[in-house]
């Protein structure tokens, strides 16, 4: 076992160089641990479970303005259902991964002083939930006679005078933690709705910065039918292999039905997901390449200074070898030296990493750095240090004992 | 440069050539640090720019709070947009030097040219003073007038790009443009109009391209054109592409030009009085809650520069710091390796100052090389940014300021990084080194 004492006294004679290595490792540690954490956050966000069967879904939208009047959603959907491969079809006011949504504050008691709980409102038609693949977990779905048409004209008078509401599991859990939401009442001002069912979680169109934020799943469904006059789209369910063909056929069909109108949007949900997270993906790549470059630069620094030390101490190494030190001892010496420097750097870096994280939390939507990142980062930098010092240390170990005599 | 410095330059070049691998690594590390840093700083610089230099200080964005009392918290920010009713009231009050009400939309353009299919184009529905207030340049024709607003005239101003696409360029004033099946007379073609950020309507994307079509707001409502952008409602209001004018929903942006501080104070008071009056009428339920932010304040309040871009800049600065510490370390190793040579020079009478200068020139050379390579990497980095999907990506270009900054950073960085090792090396005592040899 190598005792650190001789190493420390040797380092005392190279204060500046030793300090530089410690500083570089500390900076690398602090930056890399935070950057890795940011990458993980992005990956988590990109990996969010939407709660709908994305791989089976395609969507398209037809413009509402035109000479021939507004297309009727029911007629369009009936036509779309006849396309071979379409398993089910529905209208929908907004979909995940679109950044456009209808939101409202619901309250648990009537009146204007009550606390509002924001949620996204999903509307569509009778087949909306089965088409998306959202399941009723408790209570029941809407029966078809409960649906009414929502149009721009009835918007003001009819909106939220439903008798029934379906809420997502996460929203039910937020409003009545641990309780049963079915049968409870929800209000918008004085209008009241009764919860008839709790559905599996469906993600809101606008995601928060954190992929684990439960509010990403605060959603309610109301028994309204919407159409293109309220900017609704159509969503079709088909087998993943057939969806491209189905989408093309659906566009052709709608275009044929409404020659003066334009199909303004057509995409598979997988495509929409990819595009929605394009910025996150780019940021993750940027972070990863910076992390790699930073580690590379740190390694270069260690190699450079270690080589310098080996060269400077050639005579000293020769003397030690002549006095009986084995090659392994010389190798061990430089490895232990690097380990000590890395440890000092990591200790300093831990403080800096936490400092950076606190600063990021204050200025940006970044959560607290989990403590687990510190030991992982420490191991990574110890390994990096050992790997970088290996070359120079091996060169040192090859110094022949005779060097001690020759150099003099 | 004195002959002595020229000699040091020669020495430095020779010294750098002696250890090409180490020199290359140093230059590379510095270049990568500078390249990363300048790429992100350039993006930050471009994005935080003033969209209307010289004009922005007189432009203000009034905000009022028309919501009901539900979930009211004192001190809360008022809404970011205005309702139709309030927008029209404020517009018609004419209390500012200029004012305009606007909202984004999208229209189907049918070209009369052969081979051009109908297509959708982003539009802005606004009022006459939009153009003089923002100093929008015209290539041909002019803006529409207040009379066109009140008569819901079928007139349009189009962008240069749309003019080329639909009419093949040239003076198209007076030509007919078919939008959503209706005929519009072109009264103006815009010149170079690319305010960045897209400050007047940030809800369509902070760095969105300017729209192709500008129509009177009244006309757009007359023929029921689709609205683009968020509709925030309260009470029993509901959204949709064409919000009802009576709906408790905000979906329009209102801008004013106020030429003097006295005007600004007076306008703020006017907003308070207006809110109080609307409350006494029963339309508003909250106490008056107004803001009157200047253009640049409005941009910073909306955090128009994406957080990602700011974080990237910080990350790159941290990276550059690591690269600089690394350069300090490598230069130190390089200089101290030459202890023997330095000792001899000191013994032969070179002053510490002379040694210091010589080594500083050497590190300056490394900095210069790192700067040139860093500049190339910056150009490469900006090219990579332009391939990104974000709407600001296409703006990432190097301007002369940032070009100079790159070189300044490289030189300052490497001189700073060279100073410590050079100082350490010039402390080498002459006698001891001679003995050791």
For the structure shown, list the relevant keywords.
heterodimer, A: 408 residues, alpha+beta, 2 domains, four-stranded antiparallel β-sheet, elongated, B: 437 residues, six-stranded mixed beta barrel, two-stranded antiparallel ribbon
Short description:
The complex is a heterodimer of chains A (408) and B (437). Chain A is an alpha+beta fold.
Helix-strand blueprint:
The complex is a heterodimer of chains A (408) and B (437).
Chain A: H1 5-12, H2 15-46, E1 57-62, H3 73-81, E2 88-92, E3 103-106, E4 117-124, H4 128-132, E5 136-139, E6 148-149, H5 155-158, E7 164-168, H6 169-175, E8 185-188, E9 191-199, E10 219-225, E11 233-237, H7 243-257, E12 263-268, H8 269-276, H9 278-312, H10 314-322, H11 327-363, H12 373-397, H13 403-407
Parallel strand pairs in A: 4-10, 6-10, 7-9
Antiparallel strand pairs in A: 1-11, 1-12, 2-11, 3-4, 5-9, 7-10, 8-9
Helix pairs in contact in A: 2-9, 2-11, 2-12, 9-10, 9-12, 11-12
Chain B: H1 3-18, H2 20-47, E1 59-63, H3 84-93, E2 98-110, E3 119-126, H4 130-134, E4 138-141, H5 146-150, E5 155-158, H6 160-167, E6 176-179, E7 182-190, E8 213-216, H7 217-222, E9 232-233, E10 249-250, E11 253-257, H8 261-280, E12 291-294, H9 295-301, H10 307-337, H11 339-347, H12 352-386, H13 400-425, H14 430-436
Helix pairs in contact in B: 1-12, 2-10, 2-12, 2-13, 10-13, 11-14, 12-13
